[in-house]
Amino acid sequence: MHRLGLIGFPLGHSFSAKYFTEKFNRENLSDWSYQNYPISSISALEPLLLEKELVGLNVTIPYKEKVLSFCDILDEKAQAVGAVNTLVKTREGWKGYNTDIIGIEKSLLPLIRPHHQQALIFGTGGAAKAIAYVLRQIGVHYQFVSRNAGPQVIAYSELRYNDLRNHKLWINTTPVGQAPNTEESLPIDFSQIGEQHLLFDLIYNPPLTTFLKHGQAKGATILNGEQMLIEQAEAAFKIWQQQI
Fold this sequence. Notes:
By secondary structure, the chain is α/β, with parallel strands linked by helices. The chain folds into 2 domains: 2-98, Rossmann fold (3-Layer(aba) Sandwich), CATH 3.40.50.10860; 102-227, NAD(P)-binding Rossmann-like Domain (Rossmann fold), CATH 3.40.50.720. The chain is built from 8 helices and 12 strands. The protein has helices at 16-26, 45-49, 76-81, 100-107, 126-137, 161-166, 210-217, 226-243, and strands at residues 2-8, 32-38, 54-59, 73-74, 86-90, 93-97, 118-122, 141-146, 153-155, 169-172, 198-201, 221-223. A 6-stranded mixed beta sheet has the order 2-1-3-5-6-4. Strand 5 and strand 6 form a beta hairpin. Helix 4 crosses helix 8. It is globular. The model has no long low-confidence stretch (mean pLDDT 96).
């Protein structure tokens, strides 16, 4: 039996178990299984990795960066990003990958236009780092924005009208607005959105978040996280297939 799963906390919002279970049934992979592991502390990962039948994991909030210390080997791109969302058991130990990169490339990049030369990335976690990695590859300048300012990060309160107008690409990597708290919204001035703006929300439940509704109302291009999620999941599956 090849047992796979997802670690994170909480996991009530996750689509992974349903997605992969249906995929395994559809492709007649009867010896593959997938389940959620809602661990409230990263320390709970250690005994999990010792389980014999466990051969791979997906990693979500809040462990994409914390899981690095549990990797015996890191894929080159995961090392460059500084975050891991996929683990696979190899002969050399647990290897970490970042398939969020593939998900971002296949979902976001087709919508990028020449005027999308500056981006605001809301959030600073593992997904934000993957976004930044992809934007660097295509030469788009970005600014991290979070609740608190820090090195290379400005606070929401520091955003000015010109920042919001001139950065035509807005990307939400936070869980703000995710079900069940769908009325929540980022503390930014959405009135500065124009038709040239592109708003990308990594949330997929609900499909149309408050963040995206603001963009839609202003005629901006909007994209939720569903395609990214599917693309990164399929990329993770290919990794598991190759290693198992």
